[in-house]
Write a structure and sequence with these properties.
Length: 616
């Protein structure tokens, strides 16, 4: 059971953030702002910053600035990461927040160790195996918009417990201190950008389905205009409540009862025809929630130690297995097209094993999946001149011997449906501690349900389970189980000290985004900024393979000649047309830090350094 300690904000340690006041807060309002006001209110965005003394990078300039100010006020990497995450709950409410979960990877500079927290959402105790089957048809609900817009898709949130657990273990500030800047931001508001406006418009039907969501995010059924100021005083009040009473107030008492009841009886508006399947959550499900501290996954890649997240995430095992396969090839002296061919094939193989073996259950063969012997065996399947036709079969972990003749197992590598929106942040402090944290509410806009009066969206994370129950499926629906995730927060060490920390949102594309950035930086010799900006492909052992248009422009003709079937990831101009939204920090000599975010994806990210040398 989770029960965080009560915390108080002492005057001596009170943390304040200087945000311009744009008038008195109004009830859930998106007020217009003049160009002059916008310039004064919106922090600058720098995709890449070099400097010393600590760094923060995220998708959002408000959140990164708050994290930076925590570092400047003496907070450590964990304090800054939680403050940044709370701010993202304000400015990136469709990707993260109190109603979701995530995976937290921490490098402890004093002990030279990497540690993790699993804050994944869990299924209620009354979750049934046929929860995603429409009783009127006997078939699974359509994934979208029916299943993603539902109470049955809502898992018990893990983010609040993760924030408290991280602070209790490794933080130096209280929960009240790190929540205060985000509460202030929620009251004063932020300037609506094109991404927020686009994501709201894309979810307008879902948001109109619920009275609480319509009231908070829509104005007469429409998205807030670009340049207007969006305020969320309800969320500010919720942060204040948790600051006073600790995260125990989230998992016990009135808030927990309201959350569980809302999943069972969503506040439908009657303005749409969406069926909104209801859930089975009870308050005792929240009271039973706990954060799990796991040992990280680990592989050695070209002499570097790569640490990631173990199950219930599949990120660490899948990224690690693909890296081990690719280590069999000299990618530095290989043509760019051949690098892409090998990367795609390695990802297909690793995703096949992910589907066969990885889930929230005992007995996941992590050591075999991440062994060099197994990687050598899997690499035997790759033909340098001819592409796989997915799905490829999983390897045989029970008989792995490194022999190319070892037969594969039966079964395809199909993956369950996963949302493509989440958010990621990377933080380092002056003492060398590092946080890589990916947090989510799953779909853009989660379940579409705002908890009435509380100002945050509930997740739809349980859609990451396989919809149709199979007792042999490691990702089958079970009560109190955590759905398999692709989240891949990754920290790379060299001689026990950080070299690189990175992560990304994007559903199953998270795995390949992290893999591609690592290959771009470590093998292809790109700068960190270029490694993040490079166009992306998203192989996951299905066909056709989706890629960004810029990737197709570079490689499609040559890869098609090898037998690959590539298509655009989505129509241009939609939020799904881009793959990922990564952040990263690279650690250079003498304390030099390179903090990087996306230059254009999702409107461009925001990197900040305590003592900058230069920004780009």
């Amino acid at each position: 059971m989770f029960s965080g300690p009560l915390v108080t904000l002492t005057a001596a340690l009170a943390l304040t953030v200087a945000l311009p006041v744009l008038g008195a807060p109004t009830a859930d309002a998106a007020a217009p702002a003049s160009p002059a006001t916008r310039r004064a209110h919106e922090p600058p965005r720098h995709a890449t910053v070099v400097g010393r003394g600590g760094a923060v990078t995220s998708v959002d300039p408000y959140a990164s600035r708050i994290g930076l100010q925590v570092l400047q006020h003496g907070g450590n990497a964990v304090d800054a990461a939680i403050a940044t995450a709370a701010a993202l709950g304000v400015t990136e409410p469709y990707s993260s927040g109190l109603g979701g979960g995530g995976f937290f990877v921490y490098y402890d500079a004093q002990h030279h160790r990497v540690k993790t927290l699993d804050g994944r959402e869990t299924a209620p105790a009354r979750m049934k195996h046929d929860a995603f089957i429409d009783p009127s048809t006997g078939k699974p609900y359509n994934f979208t918009p029916e299943l993603v817009t539902s109470g049955v898709s809502v898992g018990v949130p893990g983010s609040p417990a993760t924030w408290q657990a991280a602070l209790d273990r490794w933080g130096s500030m209280s929960l009240a201190q790190v929540l205060k800047p985000a509460a202030a931001l929620a009251r004063r508001g932020f300037v609506v950008d094109k991404t927020f406006n686009l994501q709201t418009n894309e979810n307008a039907e879902r948001f109109n389905t619920f009275t609480s969501t319509r009231k908070l995010f829509l104005r007469h059924g429409k998205a807030p205009k670009v340049g207007s100021v969006f305020r969320n005083p309800q969320l500010a009040d919720t942060y204040d409540l948790l600051a006073r009473r600790g995260m125990g107030a989230f998992y016990h008492g009135a808030l927990a009862q309201e959350l569980a009841r809302t999943t069972r009886k969503p506040p439908k508006s009657g303005r749409t025809d969406l069926p909104v399947p209801t859930g089975k959550m009870r308050a005792k499900d929240l009271a039973a929630y706990d954060v799990i501290q796991h040992r990280p996954t680990h592989v050695n890649y070209r002499g570097l130690d790569v640490y990631g997240m173990p199950p219930s995430s599949s990120g660490g095992t899948t990224v690690g297995e693909a890296l081990n396969i690719l280590e069999r090839y000299d990618l530095r002296s290989t043509t760019p097209v051949q690098v892409q061919h090998l990367l795609i094939e390695a990802a297909h193989l690793a995703f096949a094993d992910r589907a066969k073996y990885v889930g929230d259950q005992s007995g996941v063969p992590i050591s075999t999946l991440l062994s060099d012997q197994y990687a050598a065996e899997r690499a035997c399947q790759i033909d340098p001149l001819h592409a796989f036709t997915p799905p490829v079969t999983a390897g045989n972990v029970a008989n792995s011997d490194g022999n190319c003749a070892t037969p594969s197992t039966r079964g395809d590598g199909a993956t369950g449906a996963e949302g493509t929106n989440t958010t990621n942040l990377t933080v380092a402090d002056q003492d060398g501690n590092v946080v890589e944290y990916t947090l989510t509410i799953e779909q853009t806009g989660g379940s579409g349900i705002v908890l009435p009066g509380r100002g945050f969206l509930l997740n739809n994370e349980l859609t990451d389970f396989t919809a149709t129950y199979d007792p042999a499926d490691p990702n089958r629906i079970e009560p109190r189980k955590r759905p398999r995730s692709s989240i891949s927060p990754t920290i790379v060490l060299q001689h026990e000290k950080p070299l690189l920390a990175l992560g990304s949102p994007g559903g199953s594309t998270i795995i390949t985004t992290v893999l591609e950035i690592l290959v771009n930086r470590l093998d292809r010799g790109m700068s960190l900024a270029d490694a993040i900006a490079a166009p992306r492909v998203a192989p996951n052992n299905t066909t056709p393979v989706k890629a960004e248009q810029a990737y197709l422009d570079l490689y499609q003709a040559a890869l098609t000649a090898l037998g690959h079937n590539l298509v655009p990831v989505a129509a241009p101009g939609t939020s799904a047309a881009e793959i990922g939204a990564a952040t990263a920090i690279e650690f250079g000599p003498h304390g030099l830090l390179t903090a990087a975010a996306e230059p254009t994806r999702r409107g461009g990210g925001a990197a900040d350094v305590v003592k900058p040398s230069h920004a780009g």
